[in-house]
Specification:
The protein has a single domain, classed as Glutaredoxin, CATH 3.40.30. The chain has four helices and five strands, in the order βαβαβαββα. The longest helix has 15 residues. The two termini are 19 Å apart. It has a five-stranded mixed sheet. With 106 residues, it is an alpha/beta fold.
Length: 106
């Protein structure tokens, strides 16, 4: 599954109305830790055993979305399940932590 870039216009469709787990990465291009977490997202996306949609939200472009979800630092990572926040992490989060949280949803 490809990593999706979401805006305020399509966030509901891409995340809140999606019926499977979604990992949302609030990030910015100038943020070093965000780029590091981006590599983890790519690794998760390439792992066929992990059934997870990944959505990235650029906080510089989508400040209203960042405010709506109380993003005070980046990267801010949210795991949504059926439109609800199941987990939330601040900072670079290891793949195994995300996969473990995903496993608890099923």
């Amino acid at each position: 599954m490809a990593i999706v870039n979401a805006t305020e216009n399509d966030f509901d469709k891409e995340v809140l109305q999606y019926d499977k787990p979604v990992l949302v990465d609030f990030w910015a291009p100038w943020c070093g830790p965000c780029r590091n977490f981006g590599k983890i997202c790519e690794d998760i996306d390439a792992d066929a055993s992990v059934n997870l949609k990944i959505v990235k939200v650029n906080v510089d472009d989508e400040m209203d979305l960042a405010t709506k979800f109380d993003v005070s630092g980046i990267p801010a990572i949210f795991l949504f399940n059926k439109g609800e926040i199941a987990e939330r992490w601040m900072g670079v989060t290891p793949k195994n932590v995300i996969v473990e949280a995903l496993g608890k949803l099923n």
